[in-house]
Structure formats: structure tokens, C-alpha cells
Design a protein that fits this description.
Structural class: mainly alpha
Number of strands: 2
Distance between the termini: 59 Å
Largest sheet: 2 strands, antiparallel
Shape: globular
Number of helices: 47
Radius of gyration: 35 Å
């Protein structure tokens, strides 16, 4: 609070503003300051309101020790000045007796006698005030359940009584009844009692989040795993990071631990790290810590106690270390409660939770199905060894020789050999073998640099790859191996050409005298620049090839393949028909050379390059013929590890031929064969991605989503993080399109918590796209406040995107609409002004028109006649946007902007009670739309416009005689055109009008 209120009006305004804040320290501190301010005024009523607000902040901000103190002041005021408490304030006072009972119960330092004394005070006060005792018996039952006494009588005394105005809400009472049945071991009866809350029929401040957290395990035991999964995703979102719901968070962690989702549990624990220090309620903390221990105990049992875990601030924790710390604290809390209560109830309940065995082996809770082995190390995790991988030789000379032989073949198992060699060479005690078959240490170091360069290229880090290849070439020169050096330099040339234009990938020594251009290049210019760079790289490779003597056959074949690859990539970038023949010529050279020297792998590579070139040139039938021949060869002669790539290409060609069914068969077979090899070597991520596309074409979006997320996770593990986040962004959008809102939010929450995202190491535009999709998902999930806050933050950040004002215009426009939905029209106006300013630089006609029209509708809908002037002003701005679009020759994707504007004029005037103007606007919209035809797709829109015009005319203007013929003509027109589904609202309205005549 910046300045203290100077009068009671300012105090009440400040109290209202604070009431809109989320519960937490900020709201509580302001409430404390407002009590201090209220004490300065002579009137007691403002002080009563300020004390009510402060007690509420303490109660829902998880500070139970302070709530009874505030209530004592209120009770004193009531006893001394009862006239200050009108009916509403009196109701609030007696309601809060229950808050105090709850607050005292969660504090183990409060003696049991004091708890019982307070309940007696509550009963006496209720009886004196002539109030029903059902709320008192409800508190007595809750105390008995807390202590661990026999609750049968206490439950009947409460549940058998009729509800009163001071009873807990229906949702809270349903939860207490369900918990009673749950404690008795009757899961089905508990779930039956819970159904109105779980279905969303009954809710309150704490519900359904509280009930959901308790219902998860009973649902699993009842075999309703899908329902448990659904409720976990929605319920967790409603309690995360909330200190007053720490116990609920603990139960969600326990659910993860008992369903094979330990990795997600650790993610959620990290997200809720604040609860270790912010929960002041010992009972809530006890429930939270016990849930945390269930999770950590499970992770440790699975052999991962060394993993990092988010725990108490001030130090780093491992799972094992945090588990021991949590165990000690939770044991102490259980002992304190049991000592106070004179029972062992809390120790027993805690032991029961810790002794539970997993309820299912694995329940897929989110779209990111990761095991504990995949929990983030800083470096990318290597793909697991393939089932067919040969044992890595133990002898160092044999290992070096084997690595080189496998590398020449292009065998995937070479990676495992290089990885082991890298570790051995890096050791301080490494001694290089004195063996002519192994060669000097410089050669081995060059080999390792070459492998490292290849891995950098796989991550699209081409500048680094080029530098590493060039360094390897220098070492090969030092070792007296010119053939090896030539191949390394050719690899460097290709990597340098692949580097984005404007980056600092240096051309290999001696290949060019030109200085690299450091100016970033984009769009078509970038494609042209890359094509030119690849052409130049090819020319340099040819010179290098011609100038290098004594090449071994496998080295010469490798150079020929690199030459063909450079030209193939040039064709891919340029799309120029003139670039087709040179690629085919190089492929023919490679094929002829490999055939002469019986290099089977290179023969297959030549055939693959040839088929790919035909596909790129648009000659798909020839490409299919070539691929079929290659597949026959690979199945007969090998190498088998080329089969997944070849089937992937065949699948993509069939997708281009619009034969999605055959494509899916090819890609599925490729994926099956890829399982025999490491994922990166077999192109498994790309296979999943292509399968996702095929499934979408075949109308199987859920299957497509599974493949898309699997592809993304493989890319993430393989180090291609940008590609992975792009794939996940597509998956999140697909999720949202499918209506799987909670899945979408859970996926994006997990991605946005990745270390490189939180550290700001991922492209800011890509992260912004993830956040934008999340905001839209939150809006779809009816979490308007959080969605609006995210969009407002994104709008502020995107304002600095000088190179992309159009995106800023779109984001600011979306933010404005959500602010309008929240009733914050002043802030919405600010966002609109930002959007309009950006639109002036990069027009977004449709988005701005949609935004202005929607804000106008919201104004009129929420404010009625009082909002009409502002709404019409917004529509006038939308009209100017439509004029600009028309002048620029812009055509909207669906209905024209003028038609949409006329329709919105109709709705706005109708909301404001200006029915004649509304009808005139709707008739204009109908004229602009024109009557629908049999093939036209605006029949639904036309019918809705007719319906609204009929409602305005027949109901609000009370002219049914005019409205009914309009509706009848429209129904006849739609039926004649076959749009029968669009007639139902019209016939229903007509029936209503006839009934009212």
C-alpha cells in the first residue's frame, strides 16, 4: 500500500482492491496496514470490516496462529457494541467461529482442553443467539476425526441434523461425509458422496481442489484410472504453490509416486519449493511433508537417491538427503499432534501412507512420459545402446581399430566406441598404445574431434562442427594422413555452408579468400545465400578431391558422397530445376565408384541420394521406384541400419502423393526396425514426426499427438532442443485443438520449467509461443485471471520486438479481450492502444477488427446502456480498420470485416436496449452476407443472423407478426439447400413466438 487511506471512502476502496488480490503475504501485509489505518477513524464499522479482511487473509494465507487473535478483537467489539453488527456482519462473525476452531485444531501447541473449551464457547454463543447447532456438531465431529476417536456418534449428531445458514457450504460438507466413509474403508460410498463436487456441481473457495486430492487414490483402487488422471491434472493446477493447500499438493505428489510418475512428482516438487518455507499451519505442513516423503522414498527405492531434489532454501539437496530431512520433521510433527491429542492417530496415518505400495505400474499422467533415468543432467543424455549393439572391445588397441572400422561402414555402434575412447583419453593416466595398427595419438585425437563435430552437426550447431572438423584436419596433417585430412576438410566445408548466413562459421583454411559476411540474412535471401554457399562448398570439395593423392577407396567414396550431398542440399534450398542434373551426376559417380570397389554402404547411399533428388524435383513416381529398388537391396545385402531412413523417405514420398495409409504403413515399419538401433542413428524422432503427420491425414489426431510428443522428447534427449521445443509447441497446440486443455497446460508447465528455459537460454520468441499457447489454454480452462496476466506480461515483452510488431499487435489484442472479459476496460484500452500502434507498422487487420468488436460486445453486455457510447466508439475504430483493409485489398479468411462489423452493431445495440438500431444493423449484415447457397459455408452464420434479427423483432420489439415470416422463409431456404441442421434454432424461436402471441 503506497499511502494510507485518509477517509473511510478511501479505506473501503482499498479493502475492495485488496480483496481482489490472491491470498498470500502481499495481501496479508496490506490487510494489516488497513487495520492500522481503520483504527485512526472514530467509526467502529470500518474497523470491523478491516478486521474481517485481515482474519480472512490469515485464514486462507496459511497463518492460523494469527486468526484467533483477530477474532478475539472482533468478538470483543461485538460484546461491547452489538449494534455495530448489522445482520450481514453478525452472520460473518458467527461464521468465523468455525475458522477459529479449525485454526486451533491445526496447532499442536494448543492443548486439547482449550480446543474443547472453544467448542463449548461456540455452542453457548450459538444457543444464546438462537442459532441452530448443526455447525457446532460439525466442528465437534471434525475434532473427533482429527484426534482419532470413534467418530460414529459425532458423525450422526452432525450429519443427521438439518443444515442452517451457518453450516459449511454443500461442497465442504460433502467432502467431510466422503472422508468419513473413506476412513471406514468404503471407497465406493466415498466416491458416490463426492460425485457432485468432482463433477463440478458444488464448489467453493477450497473445493473441488480438496476433494480431488483425497479422491485420487480411491479412484485408482476402484479401477477408474482415467478419471483419476483427469482430476489430477485439473486439481493440481488449482492448488499448486498455494500455502493454504499444501496438504493437497502433498497428496498429488503421493499420487505421482504411486502411479509410476516419479519424474513428474519431482517436477511438481520443484514447482512447490516455496511451500517448505511458507506454510505456517503445522497440520498442512505435516500432510505436505508426508506426501513429499512418499515420493522421495519411492525415488530412493528405485535406486535414484543421488538425483537432485528441490527442498528447503539455503542449500542443494539430493533425493536421499531431502528424504531424511523431511522424515525427521514429519515424524516430529506427528509426535507433537499425538502428544497433544493423547492418541497415535497421526503416526498411524503417516505410516499407512508411507507403507502403501504403487497402485499401478505406470499411469500416463501427461504427454511427457519420462523415467527417472531421463531426469535432466546438464548435458544431453546419450541414446541407450541398441539391442543389436556388439560388445565394446576391452582391449584398447582393439577398441581403437574397431571404432575406425565401424565408422568407415557408417555403423551406429561406432558411437559407443568413440564415447568409451573419449572417456579413456580424457583420463589423466591415459597411455597411448605403441602399436602401428593404432597409429599416433594425434590421429586418435583427430578421430575423436571428428565424432564430436558430427554430434554438433546433429544438433544443428554447424559453426562449431566446421571448426572441429578443421581442427581434426590439422591433427591428421600432423599425423601424416592427407587422405583423412581431406575428408575432414570436406566435412568442414559442408558444415560451414550449412551454417546460417551471417554466423561466424569460418571457411576451412585455403578454400576461400573472402571475408565472411556477418550481417544476418533472412527469408528468401537466406535460402539463396545458403544455396550459393553450398555450391561454393561443392566446388571447393572437387578441387580438394583432385589435389589429394593416395586416397583409399573408402575415403574417395566419402568425398564423392559429400560432393553429392552438398549439391543435394543446394537443390533442397533453391528448388531450382537446373540444380537437379548435377546432383544426379554426382550420385552416378558415387554409385559407379562404390560398385567398382564393392562398397555396399556407399552403393546404398548413392541410390538413396538419387531417389531423394527425384523426390525433391517433383518426380515422385520415379522416386518411389528408386526407393523400392533400394529397399530390396537393403533387405538382401544390407546394411540393415539404413532401412529405417529409407522407409522414412518412402513414407514421406507417399505423404506427398496423398497416400497417407501407405505412408503410415511405411513409417510404422521403419519405426519397428529403428528399435534395433540407437534413436539418433535410426532417425527415430523424424519417424515419429512423420507418423504424426500421416495420422493427422487419416483422422487420428490422438495417435498423432502421441507420435509428436515422442518425437519431441527424443529430440530433447538428443540435444536438438530448439527442434524439440518447436515440436512440443505443435503438440501443445494440437492438444488445445482437441479440447485436451489440462493436458496442454500440464505439458507447457513442464516445458517452461526446463532449466534452459528458466535460465533464458532458449530463443525468446519460441518461449513466447509456448507461453501464448498456455495462456490460451488457461482461458479455455476458464482460468481467466491467470490467462489475462500471462497475456499482459507477454504484451509488455513483445513491445520490444522491433523486428516483429505484427506479433506484438496480435498478443496485445488478445490481452485486451481477456481484460475486457474480466471487466477491466481501462487496462483493456491500454492494450488496444498498444495493438493499434503496432498495427500501424505491421497491419493485422483481422486480429484488430476482432479485438475491437469483441471489446464492444463485452462493454455492452456487461454495462448495458451505460456502456453503449464506449462500445460504439470501439466499433467506429473497427470500422476504420475495415476501411484500411479494403483500401489495401485485404480479404478476411471467413466473413468480410464489414459484415462482421454490421452483425456486431446489431448485438451491441441489442444488449444496450436500442432494438430498432440493432434490427437495422442485423438486416445490413444479412444483406452483406447474401443468402447461402448449397455449397457455401456461411449457412450457419446466416442462420444465426436471422435468428438474432427474429429475436430482436419478435421478442424485444414485440412484433412477432413480422418476425415469424422472416423465420419461416429462412427455414424454407435452408431446408431446400440441405442445411437442415441450421434450422433448429430458428424453428425453436418461431415456436416460442407463436406461444407468446
Amino acid at each position: 500500500m503506497t499511502t494510507a487511506p485518509q477517509n473511510t471512502d478511501e479505506l473501503y476502496q482499498a479493502l475492495q482492491e485488496n480483496d481482489r488480490r490472491p491470498y498470500g503475504r502481499a495481501r496479508t501485509v496490506t490487510a494489516e496496514e488497513l487495520v492500522d489505518a481503520a483504527e485512526q477513524f472514530a467509526e467502529p464499522v470500518p474497523l470491523v470490516h478491516a478486521l474481517f479482511e485481515l482474519q480472512e487473509a490469515y485464514t486462507y494465507g496459511s497463518e492460523p496462529r494469527k486468526s484467533p487473535v483477530v477474532f478475539a478483537r472482533l468478538l470483543t467489539l461485538f460484546d461491547e457494541q452489538p449494534d455495530v453488527f448489522d445482520e450481514r456482519r453478525r452472520h460473518s462473525l458467527f461464521w468465523r467461529f468455525k475458522w477459529v476452531a479449525n485454526a486451533l485444531r491445526v496447532l499442536p501447541e494448543i492443548p486439547l482442553a482449550s480446543l474443547r473449551q472453544w467448542l463449548s464457547e461456540m455452542r453457548d454463543r450459538y444457543e444464546k443467539a438462537g442459532l441452530g447447532l448443526q455447525p457446532y456438531y460439525g466442528q465437534a465431529y471434525q475434532l473427533a476425526a482429527h484426534i482419532g476417536e470413534d467418530t460414529t456418534l459425532a458423525y450422526e449428531l452432525w450429519a443427521g441434523r438439518s443444515r442452517t445458514r451457518l453450516s459449511d457450504c454443500e461442497a465442504c460438507e460433502i467432502c467431510e461425509r466422503a472422508l468419513y466413509h473413506l476412513a471406514a474403508g468404503d471407497d465406493e460410498r466415498a466416491l458416490s458422496a463426492w460425485e457432485p463436487v468432482l463433477a463440478g456441481t458444488e464448489s467453493c473457495q477450497e473445493e473441488p481442489a480438496r476433494s480431488v486430492s483425497y479422491a485420487l487414490l480411491p479412484l485408482l483402487r476402484a479401477g477408474r484410472a482415467d478419471r483419476a488422471r483427469e482430476l489430477h491434472l485439473a486439481g493440481y493446477r488449482n492448488c499448486r504453490r498455494n500455502p493454504s493447500m499444501a496438504g493437497e499438493v502433498g497428496r498429488h505428489l503421493e499420487f505421482c509416486a504411486l502411479t509410476g510418475n516419479e519424474t513428474r512428482g519431482l517436477e511438481l516438487l520443484a514447482e512447490n519449493r516455496n511451500l517448505f518455507g511458507e506454510v505456517d499451519s503445522p497440520l498442512d505442513l505435516f500432510d505436505f511433508l508426508t506426501g513429499v516423503e512418499v515420493l522421495l522414498q519411492r525415488v530412493e527405492l528405485l535406486g535414484h537417491g543421488e538425483l537432485p531434489a528441490a527442498g528447503y532454501a539455503g542449500r542443494s539437496w539430493t533425493v536421499a538427503g531431502l528424504c531424511a530431512e523431511v522424515r525427521g520433521r514429519a515424524d516430529d510433527l506427528a509426535a507433537r499432534f499425538d502428544a497433544r491429542n493423547g492418541t497415535t492417530a497421526h503416526t498411524d496415518r503417516r505410516r499407512a501412507r508411507l507403507d502403501r505400495a504403487p497402485l499401478v505400474d505406470a499411469l500416463e499422467l501427461t504427454l511427457r512420459t519420462r523415467g527417472l533415468d531421463e531426469v535432466t543432467p546438464a548435458a544431453p543424455v546419450a541414446a541407450p545402446p541398441a539391442r543389436t549393439a556388439a560388445a565394446v572391445p576391452e582391449s584398447l588397441p582393439e577398441l581403437i581399430v574397431s571404432a575406425r572400422e565401424l565408422d568407415v561402414e557408417g555403423h551406429p555402434d561406432a558411437k559407443a566406441c568413440w564415447a568409451k575412447l573419449r572417456t579413456l583419453v580424457a583420463a589423466g593416466d591415459y597411455t597411448h598404445p605403441d602399436d602401428p595398427a593404432v597409429g599416433p595419438l594425434a590421429q586418435l585425437r583427430a578421430d575423436l574431434l571428428g565424432d564430436e563435430a558430427s554430434r554438433a552437426g546433429d544438433r544443428d550447431e554447424f559453426a562449431e562442427a566446421a571448426a572441429l572438423h578443421e581442427e581434426a584436419a590439422g591433427l591428421y596433417d600432423d599425423a601424416g594422413l592427407p587422405g583423412h585430412a581431406a575428408v575432414a576438410r570436406a566435412c568442414a566445408l559442408l558444415a560451414a555452408a550449412e551454417a546460417p548466413a551471417g554466423t561466424s562459421a569460418e571457411a576451412p583454411a585455403g578454400t576461400s579468400d573472402e571475408t565472411p559476411d556477418e550481417t544476418p540474412v533472412e527469408g528468401d535471401a537466406a535460402a539463396e545465400a545458403k544455396a550459393a554457399a553450398l555450391g561454393a562448398a561443392h566446388a571447393s570439395m572437387v578441387r580438394l578431391h583432385e589435389e589429394t593423392a593416395g586416397l583409399a577407396p573408402h575415403q574417395e567414396a566419402r568425398l564423392l558422397r559429400l560432393r553429392a550431398t552438398a549439391l543435394g542440399m543446394r537443390l533442397q534450398n533453391s528448388g531450382n530445376e537446373e540444380h537437379v542434373a548435377p546432383v544426379l551426376a554426382e550420385a552416378d559417380l558415387l554409385h559407379a565408384f562404390a560398385t567398382r570397389h564393392d562398397l555396399g554402404g556407399q552403393i546404398s547411399r548413392a541410390l538413396l541420394i538419387r531417389a531423394t533428388t527425384h523426390a525433391l524435383s517433383g518426380d515422385l513416381p520415379t522416386a518411389v521406384t528408386g526407393i523400392d529398388g533400394l529397399l530390396d537391396r537393403l533387405r538382401t545385402h544390407g546394411p540393415a541400419w539404413y532401412l529405417p531412413h529409407t522407409l522414412a523417405l518412402r513414407g514421406r514420398i507417399h505423404l506427398a502423393l496423398q497416400d497417407a495409409r501407405t505412408a503410415r504403413a511405411d513409417l510404422t515399419e521403419g519405426l519397428r526396425l529403428a528399435a534395433d538401433w540407437p534413436a539418433d542413428a535410426a532417425g527415430t524422432a523424424r519417424l515419429h514426426s512423420d507418423l504424426a503427420e500421416a495420422c493427422m491425414h487419416l483422422g487420428s489426431p490422438d495417435e498423432a499427438l502421441r507420435h509428436l510428443t515422442r518425437s519431441a522428447e527424443l529430440q530433447l534427449r538428443g540435444g536438438s532442443r530448439t527442434d524439440a521445443y518447436c515440436a512440443y509447441s505443435n503438440a501443445a497446440q494440437l492438444c488445445l485443438d482437441l479440447g485436451r486443455v489440462e493436458d496442454c497446460i500440464a505439458l507447457l508447465d513442464s516445458l517452461l520449467a526446463e532449466p534452459d528455459v528458466t535460465a533464458g537460454e532458449v530463443d525468446d520468441r519460441l518461449v513466447a509461443q509456448l507461453r501464448l499457447t498456455r495462456a490460451r489454454a488457461l482461458h479455455a480452462g476458464e482460468d481467466l485471471k491467470v490467462a489475462a496476466a500471462e497475456l499482459v506480461a507477454l504484451a509488455a515483452e513483445s513491445a520490444g520486438w522491433e523486428d516483429d510488431p505484427g506479433s506484438h499487435a496480435m498478443i496485445a489484442a488478445e490481452a485486451a479481450v481477456l481484460l475486457g472479459e474480466s471487466g477491466e476496460f481501462d487496462r483493456a484500452r491500454e492494450a488496444v492502444d498498444q495493438a493499434l500502434a503496432a498495427h500501424a507498422r505491421a497491419p493485422r487487420y483481422e486480429q484488430l477488427s476482432n479485438c475491437l468488436r469483441e471489446l464492444a460486445r463485452l462493454r455492452a453486455e456487461q454495462q448495458g446502456p451505460d456502456g453503449l457510447a464506449d462500445a460504439l466508439a470501439l466499433l467506429a475504430e473497427a470500422g476504420r480498420i475495415a476501411d484500411e483493409a479494403r483500401a489495401a485489398g485485404y480479404e478476411a479468411r471467413d466473413r468480410s470485416l464489414d459484415t462482421a462489423l454490421a452483425y456486431e452493431h446489431g448485438r451491441v445495440n441489442a444488449y444496450a436496449g436500442e432494438y430498432e438500431d440493432a434490427l437495422a444493423a442485423l438486416e445490413k449484415a444479412l444483406a452483406l452476407l447474401g443468402e447461402p447457397g448449397a455449397q457455401e459455408d456461411h449457412a450457419g452464420e446466416w442462420a444465426e443472423c436471422v435468428r438474432l434479427a427474429g429475436a430482436v423483432e419478435g421478442i424485444y420489439l414485440e412484433r412477432p407478426a413480422a418476425a415469424l415470416p422472416r423465420l419461416a422463409a429462412a427455414v424454407s431456404r435452408l431446408n431446400a439447400l440441405g442445411h437442415t441442421g441450421e434450422t433448429e434454432p430458428l424453428t425453436a424461436l418461431a415456436a416460442r413466438l407463436r406461444d407468446e402471441e
